[in-house]
Amino acid sequence: MNLFDLNARVAVVTGGNAGIGLGIAKGLAAAGAAVVIAGRRPERNLEAARAVAAFKVSTAALEVDVSNEASCRAMVENTVGRFGRLDILVNNAGTTVRKQPETYTLAEWNKVIDTNLNGAFLCAHAAYPHMKNGGGGKIINIGSMMSIFGASYAAAYAASKGGIVQMTKALACAWAKDNIQVNAILPGWIDTPLTQSALREVPGLNERVLARTPAGRWGEPKDLAGVAVFLASGASGFVTGAAIPVDGGYSSQV
Ligand code: NDP
Fold it and tell me: Closest Cα to residue 63, out of 48, 45, 76?
């Protein structure tokens, strides 16, 4: 028996068309799962779905805005309509607004919270009845080092990612009875379009990341694939409510 086998499993990865989400989507596909790529840009979704199909699994590209409740529900219903089930939900879609807290507008604050935290809740809420009826499921929420630490330019982002960890624990407690495991991954500094914009906006960031990360490098999206496969598979059947750093040691170093 292969504990990490995902054949016959169906996964949705929000924000699966870029960066960390695409790295995770490829990892799940390599383990045998059918993968739905869900994001706002249809052409990027299609391109990513094609890349994932190279692993000889079924794929689909779905347009979703996770900050919109109807859109989250439609994504889940569409997935179940096409594939007949939903086993794995990766709540990865995320965004940030980098500025000092006193300069935030409420609209900017809400955009970050709506996408990163409310979106994860709405997708989990929509997925729950299908996972329950299917006999179980796996929900993987993407947190951040900002789930643990703060930064002057990231008040809304840190609030959303701290919330992700606490929501993960609460959903894990609620849905353990349904054989649904809910866990979070806390990535360190990973080279993606999101952090490429951070490198432009935050002076000295590259040097600070390299100095603080014991592994001495930025992570790559594929560094997240292994832990995602673990949390999506039978190997993690008794793991729930956990928040696992994948950070090259960043959060272990003072
Ligand atoms: P990217 O900016 O590269 O990718 C973000 C993804 O989210 C895109 O696929 C984007 O697709 C999607 N997305 C954004 N807003 C929405 C929305 N409203 N509805 C649906 N999809 C949306 O970011 P990363 O890959 O770096 O980040 C992925 C996750 O990992 C985020 O949650 C981020 O906070 C987290 N993270 C990243 C770290 C890093 O170092 N890179 C570190 C820690 C956490 P589209 O634009 O087509 O909608």
Answer: 45
Which alpha helices (DSSP H) does the chain contain, by range?
Answer: 19-30, 42-53, 69-83, 106-113, 119-133, 155-175, 193-201, 205-212, 225-232
Query: Residue 39 Cα, ligand 1 centroid: separation in angstroms?
Result: 9
Residue-wise pLDDT tens digits, 50-86: 999 999 999 999 999 999 999 999 999 999 999 999 9
Centre of ligand 1 to C-alpha 48, Å, is: 14
Q: Is residue 139 part of a domain?
A: yes
Active site residues per annotation? 157
Nearest CA to 128 out of 190, 68, 170 is that of: 170
* pTM of the predicted model over 0.85: yes
Q: What CATH number does the domain containing 94 carry?
A: 3.40.50.720
Nearest CA to ligand 1 atom 48: 40
